[in-house]
Write a structure and sequence with these properties.
Length: about 325
Amino acid sequence: MHRFPAVSALALAAALFALPGAPSALAQTPPAAPAAAPAAAPAPADPVLATVNGQPIHLSDVQAAGANLPAQLQQLPPQELLPLIVNQLIDRKALLIAAQAEDLQKDPQVAAAMQNAANEKLENAYVQQKVAPQVTDTAVQAAYKANYAGKPGAEQIDVRQILVKTQAQAQAIITELNHGANFAKLATKNSIDPNGASTGGELGWISQDQMSQALPAFATAAFALKTGQYTKTPVQSRFGWHVILCEGRRTAPPQSFDDAKGQISQQLADAAIKSTLASARSKVTIQVFNADGTPANSPANSSGSESGGTNVNLGQ
């Protein structure tokens, strides 16, 4: 679960006493007293920072709201951020009270939306509960030792590219290369890729799996080249037209644990989500109907269903 690093409980609590109108640190310090005087009561662990019609807003509410703020706002000093969040929570609480006073929650559309939101939270909590225990540090380390440690990495190629807007421009560049022009100089002169153009079109070492996910046609063309070869026909992608040069091939070194752990965690999570969905479907009776109300022929409770767009925050 995403934490709120910029504003810790301690920092927010400290900021509380720095707000205008709040008791200052000096005011909180009593004058010298005899040794027998009772000690001051400790500050509450989750103090109330405001109330709206008697309903409290706690420090923990502020922290939870802060975790959803844009990163730029989270970098504000706590003494500036705290009153902003408190006022936002006061506004939300006041709006909720006003809506409840008008029985808006009884409106059928509003009630349905509220129920859908509650159902989605419950579904996500269930998946989180089932998936998280399968994506532990121990599980990730075990998967790394079994599938990555000491094993050679994927084949990689060292690539340069020239990216232009039209097929005709790309073909003209290929003609220049055929007559001996320097690839890097042409990339610097013609490529519309700002990063690549500044380095003569250098993209560095890439693996086919890595590139295939983003630009499948580019990956297929690039990995068909031998060292020193460039594409003889332009390659189209969603970014434009590419001319590609292969400058070398290698087998990537074994991935370190730090490099692989993110990928492993995602693989374990995907497998756990798929298993959780299959288990849930196997425990219910499912009927699917066509738009005209007639029963559909294909079964819907297949255990091989894909995980779809389910996203799980594993707190890692």
